[in-house]
Amino acid sequence: MTDRSVAELAQLLRSRGLTSTELVTACLDRISAVDPVVRAVLAVDDTALAQAGAADRRHATGRSLSPLDGIPVLVKDNIDTAGLAGTAGSRLLAGTPPDRDAEVVARLRAAGAVILGKTNLTEWGNFRSTGSIEGWSAVGGQTRNPHDPEHSPWGSSAGSAAAVAAGMAPLALGTETDGSLVCPAGVCGVAAIKPAPGTLPVAGVVPISTVQDSIGPLAARLEDAALCLAVLTGHPLPAAPAPPESVRVGLWHVKGMAPDAQETAERAAERLRDAGAVVVPVELALPRDMLVDGLDALCAEFPPSLERYLGGRRDAPATLDEIIAANRRDPVELALFGQDLFERCAALTDEDRALAPDRRRRSRQQARDLLAKALADHGVDVLMAATSGPAWRIDDGPDPFTRTSSTLPALAGRPNISVPAGFSGELPVGISLFGPPDLAELLPYALLAERCCGERRTPAVLRDLPLR
């Protein structure tokens, strides 16, 4: 039941072949059975069954609110839900939940979706330390990869990706500043859409940068993520893949990425060629000054973005300096890694902050020019690359440095979509598609890639369960 597409579930709910109460119960049962191992769900909403009952009454009288009416959705715990969690993974925000829903959660509720619970994340969206551990937070502990619990789920939307992969919910919301949606999706074997910043409102989201942050959906299938995004934006997205004979794809092998990820991308390219697409190699080098400008801008944008958010939370620290000081007093928070990024951001001078807007504009324009040049010079419609290498084994030290393809579209403020593409042993590897500035233009290429290249397996944590 939990493994059907959202469109199928919606049809069953409307026709009364399935009730939302039955669907939500199945999701809660799956969470009970699997989450003690995966640790993806940080909090379950006690009102989920009541929400499902309300959806059932609407369906019974033919008053369905949207294709998401009665569909369970998990929400990353840096996105506010009134009265529920809202920790960003930090013990400093674990005392008093938010008073209000984030705007995107209000849209989910207006569409009739059932807020099932909150998912674990890399603490503070993976912006506390350069030596952080993906998928770990002081509140939720270590989320694990459902395909092999000894391996990482990546992050920062670790819990959302792992929960969807393990069938705990058909949909989840995550956030991304650079890679935090597409990378966990890639290593957990699910689909994710990272829209351009501003596509969905970030009000009520614990921020890194209100300029670069983006909210997006994760699902087992790209069509489900696209449906969710269409409901939340109110703008239907195209569902039909572009004709294969008209597609030209630029394959980018990211320098330094794991060889098995590159091999997966090559196999995906061959499958696209078999479907009639033209795939040509593309070389891209990311200029160091673009990367430095982007990080410098991010560090300057973080304190004011965060402090504006904290101003709306009761019983929360008011400033970044207060958070740094409180973390130093808490042996749990700093037990595994420090807070050097926080400290770097807090130490910025007035001059650094004044230069941030120009650095942001310069970095974004460079990234956009690089994308546009790659598309034009090679005569391609879209760029494709392995999202990242496969997940690494979890141990007691900092995560290894791993190359991804997410930084260029992130800095450009462009949409990015990751879909499952293959496996390295038992571990999934995703491919990302990006380049076009408009998500409606990008989506058909990603749907085509998923149709040609998508490979799925039942995650290891589910193989011994009686699934329904």
From TrEMBL:
Domain Amidase positions: 22-437
Domain of life: Bacteria
Name used for this protein in its record: Amidase
Organism: Streptomyces gardneri
